[in-house]
What we know:
Blueprint: H1 13-59, E1 74-78, E2 82-85, E3 93-103, H2 110-125, H3 135-154, E4 158-168
Antiparallel strand pairs: 1-3, 2-3, 3-4
Transmembrane segments: 23-46
Subcellular location: Cell inner membrane; Cell membrane
Function: Controls the rotational direction of flagella during chemotaxis.
Amino acid sequence: MAKALELPAPAGSAPVREGSLRVLLTLGLLTLLSAAIGGGFGLVMVSGIEKRVEEKYKALPEKTEVASPYAGNIGIKKLAPVVTNLAASNEDWVRVEASIIYKLNEEQSPDVMAGEIRQDVMAYLRTLSLAQIQGPSGLLHLREDLNERVKLRSKGVVQELVLETLIVQ
């Protein structure tokens, strides 16, 4: 009978398989160990942060009522619309509608004060160019400048000039 030829196994194949299996098991074990350590560290950090946040919110006082700057004896007066052209241009026109918030029981009449303030607003608007009042920052600067002028004109009687509309054509 004929014997089947058996080829000898390549030298070192069995130990290579055992060695690679050990390396894979070691890597898997290290991966699981690092995941467990990272998760534990994360839980410790989160619980520490939660404790600090709770302590901070417990230390804060309860919300208190904020006093309104408009409390007391005040009135509001709507100014007549101001329509004028802008500086260095006969084509750019601006229309402003505003109101003043003022203290009552002062010596100065609100109607007289409103007329003077309207004139002052018109004179100021005639010195502005279109570029100066464009965009949100331009509107903010215009509002601040007008409030400053109104407070100076009224000697502190007017608390604020409220811009209701601003139309530029």
